[in-house]
Amino acid sequence: MKWVFDIAIQAKVEEENYPANFLLLNRKDGEKCFLCGGRIKREKYSGRSSYFCESHQSK
Asked: Fewest CB atoms within 10 A around its CB: which of 4, 11, 34, 58?
């Protein structure tokens, strides 16, 4: 996350100027992963939701 903020600050980026695939704002359980087409899974940890692709990301 720090890396993303550092890049944005250096580039003086406004929210509407991010490339469409730079941040994934609307991940949903069951949707297709934009990288590999795998399934996005949602799990809760300490009351917070976490989304990951079952095909290429680990918990």
From this structure: 58
